[in-house]
Task: structure prediction
Amino acid sequence: MTVLMEGIAFGESPRWHDGRLWFSDWGSHRVIALDPAGRHEVVVSVPSFPMCIDFLPDGRLLVVDSARRRLLRREPDGAMVTHADLSAISDKPWNDIVVDARGNAYVNNIGFDFPGGEPAPGLVALVTPGRAPRLVAGDLAFPNGMAITADGATLIVAESHGNRLTAFDIGPDGSLSDRRVWAEAGADHPDGICVDAEGAVWYADVGNRRCVRVREGGEVLGVVELDRGAFACALSRGDDPRLYVVGQKYGDAQATGPTGQVVVFPAPAAGAGRPSC
Result:
């Protein structure tokens, strides 16, 4: 493990894009781009929590503005504009996002006020260019990380409270069908996820301080350990693949100051599918 960046308040939503790792620092309300040498820049600030990110096919950044229940889009001149209003679907916290090759954005909602609210089923909404957002999946146990397979045919959702990865077929109109368990996670609570070029999925697990690589059906192919909670992960593309993990000490009353890090491990296969490209 190599520590690439420290001093992050609350890192989440890493995405490999255009040769750099982009991620959200929820604690400082910033989106940061980090290169493999450890140089970073703040791309945009959004006063929201959570604020997950992904990219449209033309490279424009999308940011989930959960506080105002909307999806923002960063224009080429740096302006942030409303891409979609999500308030008609739910007033509960919006969470992760993944965008397919056609520009369809899947955004999930945990379904209850976290952390103090009574757990309730979450959902996935679809934002399609030129159409109002619509509900495409429900009854999810704290939907968290999402990824789309390399062929664009399957959406995989981490159900953190369900201890599993759940898959859906993606229809021509972006609708979801044929819900099924892609992999059981045992005692793990999968958070952020990513797909690799061999069709396996990496998931991050906060409580067990690790990332796990599994194939469809649940066979564990590999594990990397951290010294703090692993919240999400992303894979680089091309030769010499690397697994990037954002993590921080969570629920540690002794921690003082920011404990967030971006760490990197060698990986057996490069990233594939989405998010990121």
Notes: The mean pLDDT is 95. The CA atoms of residues 126 and 134 lie 5 Å apart. The longest strand covers residues 176-184. The chain has no helices and 25 strands.
